[in-house]
Amino acid sequence: ASVALLGPAEVRDLAAMLDLTPTKKLGQNFVIDANTVRKIVRAARVEAGDVVVEIGPGLGSLTFGLLEAGAAVVAVEIDRRLAAQLPLTAAQLAPEASLTVVHDDALRVLELPSEPSRLVANLPYNVSVPVLLHFLEHFPSIRSGVVMVQAEVGHRLAAAPGSKVYGSPSVKAAWYGDWRIAGQVSRQVFWPVPNVDSVLVGFDRVGSGLDSEELRVRTFEIVDAAFGQRRKMLRQALSTVLGDSQEATRILTAAGVDPMARGEQLTVHDFLAVARATS
Ligand code: SAM
């Protein structure tokens, strides 16, 4: 299908037409470079016929790249003006493509009009991690994806135990699958130019989630406690969620985890073992 991609002039014209001043609060930095869009679509290995969910399509920069690759796109946008405009732009630039725009807060959406197999997005920076975790939790049909996030956040998501930036988002992301840095993105490809660098992060879901929802909630509680006091040994850091320090030592030992270790040394499987040992 023939699809036109947005460049700097189109992005500015659309924004002017909507009388839109991009807001920081909604992380509105729009991609103005077609090469970057194609790079994201390639990194996500999007194929014709894939159902892709996009979070925060904005003016459509990435959306048209996904449609160009032949994907059917479901796009969730919180800004009413942008959600209303996108189908009108699509009628001009991608008249034969399959696009459904959902006007909603991505942090709250629990149902989509079709089952996506991939998630591809240039995420709003202030909510990137909670939005990702929300989608992975509520839409098990999503098997893989690529997202553009602030560089610091991307390195956290892809971090392994022992790394300086390994933390609660790294463990929670690993609950759902394997993560990798899939590319760097210059801040010059955005309008307006943000004051942080960005990276592409790719993921593949592993299995169908590690365990039951109840065990996930308990594991995440333990993870938050461990990294809430990341300098402390686990037997102390976890005493609030596992009982006193003596009880914490007993549970950690039963789980095969050294009570004197710190959270940053544990894999998601270790945290899961601790959660299991509490029941
Ligand atoms: N995808 C577009 C692009 O690449 O040019 C826009 C990306 S911009 C970084 C983030 C987009 O997410 C904006 O369009 C913004 O309005 C939208 N957004 C912000 N918070 C959101 C939320 N909670 N749910 C859905 N969309 C949101």
TrEMBL record:
It is an enzyme of class 2 (transferase). Pfam families: RrnaAD. Residues 36-207 form the Ribosomal RNA adenine methylase transferase N-terminal domain. Its main location: cytoplasm. The keyword Cytoplasm applies. It catalyses: adenosine(1518)/adenosine(1519) in 16S rRNA + 4 S-adenosyl-L-methionine = N(6)-dimethyladenosine(1518)/N(6)-dimethyladenosine(1519) in 16S rRNA + 4 S-adenosyl-L-homocysteine + 4 H(+). SMART domains: rADc. S-adenosyl-L-methionine binds at N29, V31, G56, E77, D105, N122. Keywords: Cytoplasm, Methyltransferase, RNA-binding, rRNA processing, S-adenosyl-L-methionine, Transferase. PANTHER family: DIMETHYLADENOSINE TRANSFERASE, DIMETHYLADENOSINE TRANSFERASE-RELATED. HAMAP family: 16SrRNA_methyltr_A (MF_00607). Specifically dimethylates two adjacent adenosines (A1518 and A1519) in the loop of a conserved hairpin near the 3'-end of 16S rRNA in the 30S particle. May play a critical role in biogenesis of 30S subunits. Belongs to the class I-like SAM-binding methyltransferase superfamily. rRNA adenine N(6)-methyltransferase family. RsmA subfamily. NCBIfam families: ksgA. This is Ribosomal RNA small subunit methyltransferase A. It comes from Herbiconiux moechotypicola. The lineage of its organism: Bacteria, Bacillati, Actinomycetota, Actinomycetes, Micrococcales. The gene is rsmA.
